[in-house]
Amino acid sequence: MNSTDPLVAEAAPDAAPPASTWPQTLVGVGVLLTGLGLGFGAISISSDAGYGGVGPNFLPWLMAAALTVCGGWIIWEARTGGFRELETPSGAERGDWGGFIWVSAGLLANAALITSIGFILSCTLCYALAVQGLRRAAGQPAGQPRVWVTDVVTGLLISAPVFWAFTQFLAINLPGLTNTGWF
């Protein structure tokens, strides 16, 4: 048998992982460090138990533990042969900068306008701009007036019930256009 035989290559468990596993390992290290950082931050949170028997530091500790375990698992998977059964990535070879700009504009407009035009209208604008960017990136029709109207109406149908649920049912103050609490 020669050294190019696939059975010989498969039977060598001590071989170094392929170079493609290094990015996977870096993802695992990032997740692990995020978990450790969250745990370090949770140290400063009070552990006094509230009415439910758990303190305010319970959820940060839980998330820190989960991220740390997942990060270790990802590193182990990457170093023992890489992520298995990965599908070939779909989509374009490169990101669509135009779509990125539309989505970013929507997010920035929402942040800039939420206190002046209210939650509903700013979130509707954010939704419409983001969907325009996603449509353009996917090569779908985006600039026609009918598509804009559909996106704005859909944004209103999503943001208005969210606003009402928070302000009327949960008594959480969100910026509105009027002081009535309904718009």
Question: What does this molecule look like?
Answer:
The protein is mostly helical and 183 residues long. The chain has two domains: 21-79; 97-169, no CATH class. The protein contains five helices and no strands. It has helices spanning 6-10, 21-42, 58-79, 97-137, 145-169. α2 packs antiparallel against α3 and α4 crosses α5. The longest helix has 41 residues, at 97-137. The protein is flat, with a radius of gyration of 25 Å. It starts with 5 loop residues before the first helix and ends in a 14-residue tail after the last helix. 16% of the residues are buried. Mean pLDDT is 83; it is low at 5-9.
Our measurement of the CA-to-CA distance between the termini, rounded to an integer number of angstroms, reads 77 Å
Helical element count? 5
Residue stretches low in confidence (pLDDT < 50, at least 5 long) are 5-9
Our count of domains comes out at: 2
Sum up the overall morphology in one term: flat
From the helix content, strand content and strand pairing, which structural class follows? Answer: mainly alpha
State the total count of DSSP E strands: 0
Percent range of helical residues: 55-70%
Order of helices and strands: HHHHH
How much of the sequence lies in strands comes to under 5%
Radius of gyration from CA coordinates: 25 Å
Largest sheet: none
Q: Kindly state the mean pLDDT as a whole number? A: 83
